[in-house]
């Protein structure tokens, strides 16, 4: 009887030793989970005024950049860089989401001195934007300024759908105008502007919306309109080449 009891005790001891060894082995083999490294925000890069001016003057190059004026709306309207949209710093932390599609594209910000645009640039990089530039302000470099308002394609189209446009000008070639365009739009390009002045409204406060293929021809027409004294001129920064307007 004692012999049987000893056998049972020995078997139990061997089993416990085996389980302990297995657990110890598993514990030794278990590797701690690798700690994920936090992704650091991209660095804001400085841009000289002369470099931004060259980009704006190059019709092809300017399409690779989104230029944002973060000054107040009244400052923007008084005179801004030709292809810049306006996103005031006071509401920038909320409004930047409108340009989230540019997270991996070149975004250039500017203001008067670089201070406000610097704050806006930090907001962008802290929210995943990877190519952000803070350019010399309008008080630091003598840019060629314009007074018409640039709109992204979606905002331009929404304004027209909401009935805000007193006149829509299609600055594309005649064949494309005849193919399809916005309802009641008139076809006036840079080359035919002088010959079509009679199509323009007499009221200089009329809201005039201009678009083309890429924003270049329409910007030229918009500039001519402001020279004639029109005060509410809107240019589609995204032309029909970049944005699918629902004609």
From TrEMBL:
Residues 61-147, 162-235 form the Rhodanese domain. GO terms for molecular function: thiosulfate-cyanide sulfurtransferase activity. It is an enzyme of class 2 (transferase). Transmembrane segments: none annotated. InterPro entries: GlpE_sulfurtransferase, Rhodanese-like_dom, Rhodanese-like_dom_sf. CDD domains: RHOD. Gene3D superfamilies: Rhodanese-like domain. Residues 1-23 form the signal peptide. Its EC number is 2.8.1.1. Keywords: Signal, Transferase. This is Rhodanese-like protein. It comes from Peptostreptococcus anaerobius. The gene is pspE.
